[in-house]
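Case study.
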Amino acid sequence: MSFLQLKNIEKFFGDHRAIKGVDLSIEKGEFIVFVGPSGCGKSTLLRLIAGLETIDGGNLLLDGKDITHAPSSKRDLAMVFQSYALYPHMTVAENMSFALKLAGEDKKVIKEKVEHAAEILNLTRYLERTPKALSGGQRQRVAIGRAIVRAPKVFLFDEPLSNLDAALRVQTRVEIAKLHRELGATTIYVTHDQVEAMTMADRVVVLRDGAIEQVGRPLELYDRPQNRFVAQFIGMPQMNMLPIGEFGSYAESLVRPLPVGGHIGVRPEHVTITNAGEGQLLATVDFVESLGAESLVYATTPHGVQVVSKQSVRSSVRAGDTVSLKFEQDWLHVFDADGQVVSNAKGVAK
Amino acid sequence: MKKFTARFLLTPAVGSLFLWMIVPLVMSIYFSLIRYNLMSPGEHEYIGLMNYEFFVTDPAFWPAVLNTFLLIGSVIVITLVFGMALALLVNDKFPGQSIVRVLLISPFFVMPAVNALLWKHMMMNPIYGVLAQVWRFFGAQPVNWLESYPLLSVIIMVSWQWLPFACLIFITSLQSMDREQLEAARMDGANYVQQFRYLYLPHLSRSVAVVVMIEMIFLLSVFAEIFTTTGGGPGFASTNVAFLIFVQGLMNFDVGVASAGGLFAVLLANIASVFLIRIIGKSLEK
Amino acid sequence: MDKTLLWVRTGAAWLVALLIFFPILWLGMTAFKTELQAISVPPKFFFTPTLENFIEVQSRSDYLLYAKNSLITSVASTLLGLLIAAPAAYSMAFFQTRRTKDLLVWMLSTKMMPAVGVLIPVYVVYQQFQLLDTRLGLTIIFTMSNLPIMVWMLYSYFKDIPREILEAARMDGATLYDEFRHVILPLGIGGLASTALLCLVLSWNESFWSLNLSSAKAGTLATLIASYSSPEGLFWAKLSAASLMAIAPIIVFGWFCQKQLVQGLTFGAVK
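After joint prediction, the assembly is written out as follows.
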C-alpha cells in the first residue's frame, strides 16, 4: 500500500466543484509535482492535503491512517508557503524551532536539530536575525529549514520559488532537488512552471479544472502525452497542433482510420525548414527568433495555422519567405476530435 | 469544532452587548407606556402613547431635533474642511513638524467638561474673555457669545475638540499617498487645484467616510458641553435631543416622558445608522 | 521660489497650531495666576506664578480622590474591554463567516444608541444592584460603551496579520491557544496598544455617565470639574487649576505615546 493516498477527494467552494474527485497514490520518498495553469486547483489540492481546507468528499490516508478530517497540527506534515509565512517577530532560530518547542521537545535536541538544518541550508550565520533582516533567498531557506527541522512525514511546497528572481530561482531549484536526494523525504511540490516540474519531479501530476489530466514521469509526459492539453502544456515552445485536414492525403499514411476532426501534434524540434517541394506543407515565414545555439522559425500555413520549427543551425530564412515544412514521420502524435491521443510518436520507442 | 471555538470566543462580547442593548430598550418601552413621575408617587397606570405625545408636543421638541442636526452637520463640515486643509499644510516636512503635530492633537485629549468651562469662561466671557479682549483690541463691540449665539458657541467648542481627530485621520491617510502618481500628475501639468480634485480627494474619500461615521456616533450624544455652558438656553436655542431628554428625566423627574424621548433618540440614531451602515459597509470591504 | 514656499508654509503651520493650542496654553497660564490676575484687562502674559490654586483645589474638593477614581475606572474598563474584545475580534478576523460583517455593524450600531436614550433604565438597574456612585458601576458602563469600538479596531488590526502565518503555525502543530499566545499576540501588540490607549483616553474623558451615575464617592475628574461650573462667582484661577489637573495627566500621557495613539485615533480604519 502506498504512503499517501488520495481517494476520490472532492472540494466545493459554494456551488463550485473545485476539486472533482481526485485519486492519487504517492510512494514513500517520492518527489511529486502538481502542475497546471492558474485556477486548475493545484494549490487547493495541496491545502486539502495540508488540512488548511476541509475535505468535502473522499478519503485521505497517510501511512495507513485516515487523516481526512484530522486538523493540520495533527497531520505531521510541513509546508513551505509561497510568501514563506515566517513569523516576523521571531529570530531565524526561533522560527525553525517553533514546531519542536510546541511539541515539547528537549531544548538540547532542538538546538542540535536547528543547528544541523542551518548548516545544511547555509544559515548558521543568520540564526539570530529576524526575517526582516534577510534577503528573499535567505527567507526562502529559513522557510525550508523550518520544515526540515521537524522531519515530517511529507513536505509540502506551495509555489515556493515564485517570489524569487530568475537567477535565484534556478539556484534554489537545484538546491531543493539536492536536498530531496539527501533527505529522501516524501515531497509534494506545487508550481505553474513546467520547467520546475520537469527538472525536479519523480512524477508529475498535470491538473486542469480540478481534475487530473495525466500522471507520469517527466519524460513520459513529454513523449507520451495522453491528450492535447498535456501535450501542449508540457514543452517549450508548445507542441504544434495541426488539424488533420491540413495534411490532405498524407495523413492517411499515418493512421487508419483517420479520426474525424482530430489533430496531429508535432514538437518544434521535429519540424524542419526545407526547400519548396521536399516537405509536406507550404508556409510563409512570419518571423525568426535567433537564440544563438538554436533558432525558432514561426511560419503560417495557407489555412492560417501557425507552426514553430526549432533548429539547431542558424537559419537563413527571413520573414516573408515561402518555405516548405518537413515533419519527421516518426515523431507525430495523433489526437482524436475529443483531444484524446490515438497514437503517440513511434520515435520514442527507438 | 472550529465553529464551536469561534462562537465561544464571540460569546462574551456579543452577549454583553446584547444585554446592554436589549435590557434598557425593553425597560424604556415599558416606562414609556406608563405614568411614572418620581415627584408624584402612586400607581404606575398604563397610559398608552400619552408620554410620546407629551414629548413630541413639547415646545422644545422641534427646536431640539433641528439643533441636533445643525450641531452634527456643522461640526462635521467644519472639521472635514479645516481638517483636510490642515493635513495638507503639515503633511510635507518642515522645521518643527513633530511639535506642530503634538500641538494640533492636544484638544482631543481635553475632556468635554473642561473644554466647555474653558470656552465658557476664559474664551467667551463677554468682559474678561480672550475673545472679548481681541474684539476690543480691534475696536469692535465684544460679543456675548453664549447669550447671543448659543448654538454657534457650542458648535465652536465641539469643532475645536474634534478638529484634531479629522486632521489626524487625514494626515495618516496622506502618508500612504502614491508619490509617483503625484509626480506623474505634475509632469502632466496638473495645478494644485487639479491635484487636489483628482488625486488627493479620491485618496481621502475613505478617510472622509471614517470621520463622518465616528463623529456622527459621538456627536449624537453631545451633552456635557451644553450642560456646563448654556444649559440648553437661552430658551431652547441650544437644546439638542440628548439634553432635552435629560431635562425631562432628571430635572422634571418624569421617567415616562423621558423614556419616550429616549426611544425617540434611539429611533433617530437608527435613521442615522442606516446612512452610516452604507458607509461602513463600503469601508469594511476595501 | 521653493524656499519661500517652505517658509510660508512653515509659518502658516506654526501659526495655526499655536492658535489651536492657545486655549489650553491659556488655561495652563491662568492656573498659575492669582484670581485678580486671571481676570485682568488687558490679559497678563507675564506674572509671578503661584501654586496657591492647586493647594486650594486639593483642600477644597479632594482632587486626589477624583483622580484616583478616574485612573481606576479608565484602566479597569480598558483591561476588561480588551479581555472581552480581543477574543471576539480574533474570532471574527480568522473564522470569518457570511454573518461576520453584519455582526460587526450591529456592534457598532449599539454604540450609536445615544446614552441619554438609555440613561433612565440604566439608572434604575444600577439603583437595584447598588451600583450607583461606585467605581465598579462606572467601569462596567465605560467598558460597554467602548466595547464596539474596541472590537472594530482590533478586528481591523488582526485582519492585517497574513493568513499564511497562522496557517504555518497550524502546520507547526500550534493549538488555538499557542496560535493566540505565540503569533497573534506578539504580532497584534501594536494594535492592542493603540486600542488600549484610545480607550483609556475615551474613558478618562467620559463625562455623561460619570456626571449622571456618580458623585462624591466614585466621581471622576469630569464630575469634579462640573462641580466648578456652578455660577458662584468667577474663580477662574482655581477653575483653571482644577481643569489643568484633570487634563494634564492624559495630555502628557498622550504626548508620550503619540505614535501609538495616533494609530489608535484613526480607529484602525485608516492605514
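Observations recorded in class. Residues 18 and 25 of chain C are 9 Å apart (CA to CA). Chain C has one domain: 62-265. We will return to this complex in the next lecture.
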